Each structure stands twice: as structure tokens, then as C-alpha cells.
Amino acid sequence: MNEPGRIVEKIVKLFPQERFSSDPFKILICTILSQRTRDENTESACEKLFARYKDVFDLAKASPIDLYELIKKSGMYRQKAQRIVEVAKILVEKYGGKVPDKLEELLRLPGVGRKTANIVLYQGFGRPAIAVDTHVHRISNRLGLVKTKRPDETEEQLKKVIPKRLWGPMNGSMVEFGRRICLPVRPRCENCPLNQECNYFLQKRR
Fold first, then answer.
1. Per the residue annotation, which of 58, 72, 133, 164 is the catalytic one?
2. Which residues are annotated as a binding site?
3. Domains delineated in the chain
4. Backbone dihedral angles phi then psi of residue 20, each to the nearest 5 degrees
């Protein structure tokens, strides 16, 4: 296995993450809710939302204002409520209530970018896909797996150096690694199990 692949495999083993759901629709909606908020806020909003609305057909009949209190904790709740109802209506009208399993079609849905689409492809359909969020982008550059400025560049570069079997698992594991050790500010480098393989740490020590 190439060096970047070996490093990512180590992260996946050290910080294993299970898929929180196998339902593509719940994964899609909860990932939209997760944008620009903390995980605990996302979990609370998802739980309240799906306690009230059981599936895509229920949500397609809702008015955005009906969702405000349910998802308020996720932040930007008015915008997210509008997007969620729009997405539900499109899925019912165009796809018979099913979530599409093609990247291009997912990207056409309101509020769905590459990160969200790739999470749905992996968690909902078991497809190899690399979801690049701020954690994956930051950690990949710090470790020296890639040298990129933008998340879309990071995704493309990682695809070239990481084995496909690690594409899906690496997002959840890197997110956990980023929360616990490789923090955005003041990373805990001295306690990092990868510090001897990390460009950022080795350069900092010079």
C-alpha cells in the first residue's frame, strides 16, 4: 500500500466510525442539517424532525415554517427548512420518493454539495466516495497526503493516492481524529499517534 494509503488506514483503525443509518433519505436530510453546526446539534435536530415526519412523503407535504422549532438547534434553520422541504418534494415528484444514487443527480438537489452527496453515496448506498469537509481538508494537508487549497482539489488528489476501500470510511474517522487530536487551532501534536509521519509536526519541531 502506498504511504498515504497506509496513513489513512491507520487513522481508520484508530478512530473507527459506524454508519449512523442505512436510509439514504435520512442520511441526506441529516447531512443537510449538519452544515455549519456541531454534531450534537445535528443529532438533536434529526431526532426531533424524524419523530414528527416519518418519511419523504410526510416531509414533502410540510411547510418550511412547520420545521423551524424542530430543527432550530442546527442553526440557519429557516434556510435549512426551506431546502429540506424542497428536496423532499423533488424526490417525490421526480424520483418516486427515492434518493438518486448518482453524484450528478444528487448535486442538483437544493443544499447538496459534493461533501453531502459523497456521504449519501457511501453511507446510503455503499459506494466508494470521499467526502471532504474541513477536517479532511485540514488533516490531509497537515499530514502531507496532499498539497491543496480547496476541498474539491483535496478530493481529487486523495482519489489518486488512497485505495478505494478507504474512501468511504476515512471521512468519519478523520472527523473524529480532527475533533480529538488534530484540532483546527492548537492541535494536540504531542499526543498524536501520527506525529512522526506528519509534515506539520516535523516542520514545527525544526
1. 133
2. 182, 189, 192, 198
3. 3-16+130-205 (1.10.1670.10), 24-125 (1.10.340.30)
4. -80, -15
Known binding-site residue numbers for [4Fe-4S] cluster = 182, 189, 192, 198
Name the H helices within the chain: 3-14, 24-33, 39-52, 56-60, 64-71, 77-95, 103-107, 114-119, 125, 134-143, 151-161, 164-180, 199-205
At 21 the pLDDT is 75
133 counts as catalytic: yes
Tell me the C-alpha to C-alpha distance, in Å, between residue 2 and each of 91, 161, 163: 40, 7, 9
- pLDDT tens by residue, 54-83: 999 999 999 999 999 999 999 999 999 999
d(CA 59, CA 64): 9
End-to-end CA distance of the chain: 29
Distance (Å, rounded) from C-alpha 191 to C-alpha 32? 33
Distance CA 100, CA 146 (A): 30
Catalytic residue among 115, 147, 149, 159: 115
Is residue 72 flagged as an active site residue?
no
Helix ranges, 96-198 (H): 103-107, 114-119, 125, 134-143, 151-161, 164-180
Under 8 Å between Cβ of 128 and 167:
yes
pTM of the model: 0.91
CA angle 46, 51, 53 (to 5 degrees): 90
